[in-house]
Amino acid sequence: MTEITTDLYQVKEKMYVATDCIIFGFHEGKLKLLVFKRKVEPLKGESSLIGSFVRLDEDLDVAGRRVLKEATGLENVFMQQLKSYGKKDRDPGYRCISIAQYALIRIDEYDEKLVEEHGAHWYEIDQLPNLILDHNEMVQDAMYQLKHNARYKPIGFELLPEKFTIPQLQILYEAIYQRELDARNFRKKVLSLNVLKKLDEKDKTTSKRGAFLYKFDYENYQKLLTSGYNFEIA
Amino acid sequence: MTEITTDLYQVKEKMYVATDCIIFGFHEGKLKLLVFKRKVEPLKGESSLIGSFVRLDEDLDVAGRRVLKEATGLENVFMQQLKSYGKKDRDPGYRCISIAQYALIRIDEYDEKLVEEHGAHWYEIDQLPNLILDHNEMVQDAMYQLKHNARYKPIGFELLPEKFTIPQLQILYEAIYQRELDARNFRKKVLSLNVLKKLDEKDKTTSKRGAFLYKFDYENYQKLLTSGYNFEIA
DNA sequence: GTAATAAATGTAAAATATACGCTCATTCTA
DNA sequence: TAGAATGAGCGTATATTTTACATTTATTAC
User: Fold this and answer.
1) Which residues of chain A does B99 touch, with a Cβ-Cβ cutoff of 8 Å?
2) In this protein, which residues make up the domain named NrtR DNA-binding winged helix (chains A, B) (predicted)?
């Protein structure tokens, strides 16, 4: 057996490695978080993020996607590592570190039944219940990260349906930044990024006139990225 | 025994948890990385980051600081979690995930003897040797993170001696960003941040006239932070 | 056909970033 | 001890970006 990672020490102790998922969604103009109810003791009935142990034959990111899929039915969504939480007594039962990963999902796409089976519930981001262990901290950190990332990468689009209007996009960014944005300036800015494809369709659910639908232009985004473009949004 | 973290699964498998340290320094106008030589098989003699298993009774960040101290003798330096590396086969010997943490140290402060004992060597950041396992990736990620962070948090100061001149600070930022900066604009910008205390001393090692020494003003920095100040540098 | 509603557009002022050249303080040496 | 040499330190003009703000337009409902 090879033993590679450490030079300094012989102290080799195994521990549990878990991953917890911070699942963001956007619905009715509100940024929301998917919160679960524990079904087993201890802390049965308490609110919590959804998580799982990482299996020995499973990549870390694969574990996150497995959890997400089992909780929501969704695959191929935006998911990114947030941070590891490794205080020695973070879990009172045994030593376990958790790598938190956060996902951005289109609420119209997830499987409600699956979610219900897990006792899940969407909460508005500023009306969250108290969560077990260090999950509150995870959510806070994820929220910070989301705000930060949304500013430089167009990840906001991951939370919207494939087709969306500029006003919808603005409301999303307002929810992320938790402040109001100027409609004219916002429109100017996002259009100037050249990553939106205007469609010939309109969405008329919010106005009589209707707002044009757009798609995110992944190809052009990639092209601009490699040419060293700056994507500061809003 | 309580079992808290997971709802979904009973699959509970322990694994090794390691931490690897990416140690940046700044010396002679160059950004450098501390690289170690493995002293044990397998891969004996290969270049590597320094790391250790995380102990069962040890917080994750404490483990990072322990490794850093044992490798360099330094405590109380800037250290921050980078990312977890968790591919199932990243270490050919056994399943082990590693949480990479990066440190910024003042090269004039570290204990050379300790470093030598570990077969360590400072490499310029653009002349690194090949490293074992996924350590190259860790360094790349850390470099990206450093560039990014240096832009919004005044972490650059962590790499300089306590007293430094503006031209020195500029050279550091040039090393981090890997491009030249305009001396007049750089000076204007950093001074406008109001986090530098000008001292009455001069450093005359690089010019006849001498350059005034400054200290980073942590107090004022904290004050400005809480008042929501924007710290974009360079 | 008119009232109502949100979508869409433009421009001027303020703030910020960039580009660029000269003087100053000090040391070295002739 | 005068003056040449060197990097430190400063200021201003221009370009770019951000902000603030008001009106018209397309469509539906009555």
Assistant:
1) 84, 86, 97
2) 156-216
From A163's Cα to the closest Cα of chain B, the distance in A is: 32
Asked if A166 contacts A190 with a C-beta cutoff of 8 angstroms, the reply is yes
Q: Judging by DSSP bridges, how do beta strands A96-104 and A78-85 pair with one another?
A: antiparallel
Query: Which of the nucleotides in strand D have any atom less than 7 Å away from a protein CB atom?
Result: 5-12, 18-22, 25-29
Residues carrying CATH 3.90.79.10, chain A: 7-151
3-state secondary structure chain B: CCCCCCCCCCCCCEEEEEEEEEEEEEECCEEEEEEEECCCCCCCCCEECEEEECCCCCCHHHHHHHHHHHHHCCCCCEEEEEEEECCCCCCCCCCEEEEEEEEECCHHHCCHHHHHHCCCEEEECCCCCCECCCHHHHHHHHHHHHHHHHHHCCHHHHHCCCEEEHHHHHHHHHHHHCCCCCHHHHHHHHHHCCCEEEEEEEECCCCCCCEEEEEECHHHHHHHHHCCCCCCCC
- The CATH fold of domain B153-226: Arc Repressor Mutant, subunit A (1.10.10)
Residue with tokens 């009935």: A45
Full-model pTM: 0.91
In chain A, list all ranges with CATH 1.10.10.10: 153-226
Residue B153, phi then psi, degrees to nearest 5: -125, 145
Residues of A in contact with B132 (CB under 8 A): 4
B166-177 and B135-152 are packed helices; what angle lies between their axes, rounded to 10 degrees? 130
| pLDDT tens, per residue, chain A with 234 residues | 334 444 444 689 999 999 999 999 999 899 999 999 988 778 889 999 999 999 999 999 999 999 999 999 999 999 999 999 999 999 988 899 999 999 999 987 787 887 888 889 999 999 999 999 999 999 999 999 999 999 888 899 999 999 999 999 999 999 999 999 999 999 999 999 999 999 999 999 999 999 999 999 999 999 888 887 788 887
